[in-house]
Design a protein that fits this description.
Blueprint (H helix, E strand, L loop, with lengths): L5 H6 L24 E6 L2 E13 L17 H7 L4 E4 L4 E4 L2 E7 L4 E6 L13 H13 L8 E8 L2 E6 L5 H8 L8 H4 L7 H5 L12 E6 L3 E6 L11 E9 L2 H10 L5 E2 L6 H4 L6 E7 L4 E5 L9 H10 L2 H8 L4 E3 L11 H5 L16 H10 L3 E3 L2 E3 L7 E7 L3 H17 L2 E7 L1 H9 L5 E5 L11 H9 L10 H4 L3 E4 L5 E4 L1 H9 L4 H18 L2 E3 L1 E10 L18 H8 L7
Parallel strand pairs: 2-11, 2-12, 18-19
Antiparallel strand pairs: 1-2, 3-4, 5-6, 6-8, 7-8, 9-10, 10-11, 13-24, 14-20, 14-23, 15-24, 16-17, 21-22
Helix pairs in contact: 9-12, 10-13, 15-17, 17-18
Length: 583
């Protein structure tokens, strides 16, 4: 089956512990206030200054192999590798990066990729489709999700390739898949892995990358990644400063304190900051809010004797006041989902249309304990001394897992457990290191616990991706034990009071096969209806990414501008000339 979340889901974790036309400007900038080098590049003055971006992690332990997601430093990768395509949440449209043109022929089921003539590597070599050939072969070897839609590909010339789709495919699916591709594979460095085992390639730590993006790698140590301006970059005229650093900090609190200082750093790519801390930031600290399409939810183990029952899952949903999670953990950046139906909150009404008002909301701003109790009783549970028990006297609960170091998630977990225990469940919070948290879910060693209910990134704006993610739970290897049920015929209560019979996986896969949004809508409606009845996951809260930069010495993209809400400002704005030195 297709890998849906993968690196996008992992990149979305950053703030808790990649988009019409991408044409760049060629403006020359006269920055008389800062020191400059002795010359100019491409007609633009290059200032001998550095931009410092805060980062949590030890650069010395990290690498640039984008396929080796363990210890891959994705913020560093964004600095050195040019993106194929980006997505603007401002304008809900795709923007070209390294691609010059993208043509999708739905009739002949072909995708033609045309790359920029000036795309090159920082060692002076031209990029060619020989590099792409190796990249696509390695992507197939590692099961990259794009290959779930491809039969083959053809290299047309040095700048053009054609992808042959395996069947009818929604054009947006292809575009969102390509937003996860970067010019990160060079034939000379990567072709040796074509004959190697997959594991050998995935374990390869690429320490000294050849760059295609704005910055060339200089060095890394425990303190920072250091980069210098890539003079071979196709938009080099947009980069008017000489150095870029990813400075290592010990976590959210340390990054927040650096921003409070007003002078230690210039940016933090993705950082949760509660209102009381943000109020302490100097005026030149700029917050950029970008839809995360990601957020706090609950994953159920569908083999659990209690939470494997639909009525119990629905009772959980009714017993939680979702707005209380937002109020307690971050009303500045978080918001509830109108209905937990597997679609990102801000997209639900537009996709569901006249179905939207018929969906059960599960009381987002209150605890509906009366309905929850009725559901528990229907499932055969009784309440004894304030605690729900099954017919054998077993209580309903267990360890509720939550990731250590994610301060906002810790608060939301405490709120959820408190509400559920007040209702009569018997949960204990178990805070774990992130790796252990994932491992317990992957191994099915849980009853229910916290997990993001959207895979994150721009792809989550298209309902197929989050709906599929909840059915297949790729990030935890299907550890929620719903896959077999997802690919079976189910009969559920229908919208009109009757019944609806469907195979949820095949219905969701039909979304990806439709040539337009209008033709996909009926399958989105059916899959979402199933989701909100069955609750493979329980979506509770979503958020805006909080991305931070400064405007005392640096320019910023204007509010409402196409590039304003592109992930991430500290990279795409440099690519487009929106972030320049102006000291």
């Amino acid at each position: 089956m297709l890998t849906v979340a993968g690196a996008s889901g992992m990149a979305a974790l950053a703030g808790c512990g990649g988009d019409g036309s991408g044409d760049a400007t060629d403006e020359s900038t006269d920055d008389s206030g800062g020191s400059t080098d002795d010359g100019t590049e491409g007609g633009s003055q290059v200032n001998d200054v550095a931009y410092h971006n805060a980062y949590t992690g030890n650069p010395a332990d990290l690498h640039f192999n984008t396929s080796g997601t363990q210890n891959y430093a994705w913020p560093a990768g964004r600095a050195v590798f040019a993106p194929f395509l980006k997505y603007s949440f401002t304008d809900t449209e795709f923007l070209n990066g390294a691609l010059e043109n993208l043509e999708i022929d739905t009739e002949n089921q072909e995708v033609t990729l045309t790359f920029r003539e000036d795309l090159s590597w920082d060692n002076g070599d031209d990029w060619t489709t020989e590099d792409l050939d190796v990249q696509l072969q390695l992507a197939e070897k590692t099961g990259t999700s794009l290959w779930g839609y491809l039969d083959d590909y053809e290299i047309v010339d040095e700048r053009t390739a054609t992808l042959m789709l395996s069947g009818p495919t929604n054009p947006e699916i292809v575009k969102f898949e390509l937003t996860n591709f970067f010019v990160d594979t060079k034939k000379e460095t990567h072709e040796e892995f074509l004959e190697a085992e997959e594991a050998e390639f995935l374990q390869w730590a690429w320490e000294d990358p050849v760059a295609s993006g704005m910055w060339s790698f200089v060095s890394k140590d425990q303190q920072a990644f250091e980069f210098e301006r890539n003079e071979e970059f196709y938009n080099a005229d947009n980069v008017n400063f000489g150095s870029y650093y990813l400075d290592s900090f010990g976590g959210n609190n340390a990054q927040q304190q650096a921003l409070i200082s007003g002078s230690e750093v210039d940016a933090a790519t993705s950082l949760f900051v509660p209102p009381e801390i943000a109020d302490q930031f100097p005026d030149h600290i700029v917050e950029v809010n970008i839809p995360a399409k990601w957020g706090y939810g609950i994953v159920f183990n569908h083999d659990d004797p209690h939470f494997g029952q639909r009525e119990v899952r629905q009772a959980v949903a009714h017993a939680i006041n979702r707005q209380a999670l937002v109020d307690n953990a971050g009303p500045r950046s978080k918001f509830v989902t109108p209905t937990p139906c597997g679609i990102a909150p801000k997209d639900q009404e537009s996709w569901l249309g006249d179905w939207f008002s018929d969906f059960e909301t599960y009381s987002p701003e209150s605890q509906d304990t009366e309905t929850a109790a009725e559901l528990m009783e229907e499932a055969g549970y009784t309440k004894n001394d304030g605690t729900w028990e099954d017919e054998d006297g077993n209580t309903v609960g267990g360890d509720y897992y939550s990731p250590a170091g994610w301060s906002d998630w810790t608060t939301m977990t405490q709120t959820v457990v408190s509400q559920l225990n007040d209702f009569g469940f018997d949960f204990s919070v178990s805070t774990q290191p992130t790796n252990d948290w994932f491992s317990n879910y992957s191994e099915g060693n849980f009853a229910m616990g916290s997990l993001y209910w959207l895979p994150g990134g721009s792809r989550s704006a298209f309902p197929y991706f989050p709906l599929y993610y909840q059915l297949w739970a790729t990030d935890i290897g299907g550890g929620h034990n719903y896959r077999e049920k997802a690919d079976s015929e189910q009969t559920i209560p229908g919208r009109d009071g009757g019944e609806m019979t469907l195979n949820p996986l095949k219905t969701t896969e039909n979304i990806a096969k439709q040539p337009s949004r209008d033709e996909a809508r009926q399958y989105v409606q059916q899959a979402a209806w199933h989701n909100h009845i069955e609750l493979p996951f329980l979506g509770l809260v979503s958020k805006y990414e909080q991305s931070w930069t400064t405007d005392d010495e640096w320019t910023v993209a204007e509010e409402g501008a196409t590039n304003r809400q592109v992930k991430w400002p500290q990279y795409w704005w440099v690519h487009e000339g929106d972030l320049q030195y102006d000291g």
